[in-house]
Design a protein that fits this description.
binds calcium ion; Recoverin, domain 1; mainly alpha; 5 helices; about 65% helix
Length: about 120
C-alpha cells in the first residue's frame, strides 16, 4: 500500500467530507464513480477501474489492490461495483468519515430503493 507521504484515497475522503459537507461528498463520490465506471455498462469493472484510476490519482494502486477493492465492495457478487456499492466501499475504506457521515450514507441508501 501507499506510504504516508503519497496521496491516498483513504486519507483523502475525510478531508473531502469536511470541505464539501455530506451532500457534496456524496456528489463527489458519484463523480468518482462516473470517472471510474465503464460508460457502456454503467458499473465499475476491473478493466474500467484500471483504465481510469489514474484520473483520480490512484495510479499507485497495483492490480491486486484494485481487485481487492472490487471484491471488498461487491455485495451482489456480479464482479463489478454499481454506484451504491462504490459509495459504500468508499465509506468503509475510510473509518473516520464513517463516524462523521454515517447518517448521510444511510440517507443515500434509503433514497436508492433498488439497492439490495
Ligand atoms: Ca456488484
Amino acid at each position: 500500500m501507499a506510504s504516508k507521504d503519497q496521496s491516498n484515497f483513504h486519507d483523502f475522503l475525510p478531508l473531502m467530507a469536511e470541505k464539501l459537507g455530506g451532500d457534496g461528498l456524496i456528489g463527489e463520490l458519484c463523480n468518482g464513480f462516473r470517472l471510474l465506471s465503464d460508460s457502456d455498462k454503467g458499473v465499475i469493472t476491473f478493466e474500467s477501474l484500471k483504465k481510469n484510476a489514474a484520473c483520480l490519482g490512484l495510479e499507485e494502486l497495483s492490480d491486486e489492490d484494485l481487485l481487492g477493492m472490487l471484491k471488498e465492495g461487491d455485495f451482489d457478487g456480479d464482479g463489478a461495483l454499481n454506484q451504491m456499492e462504490f459509495c459504500v466501499l468508499m465509506f468503509r475504506l475510510s473509518p473516520d468519515l464513517m463516524g462523521q457521515s454515517l447518517f448521510l450514507l444511510e440517507e443515500a441508501l434509503l433514497q436508492d430503493s433498488n439497492f439490495s
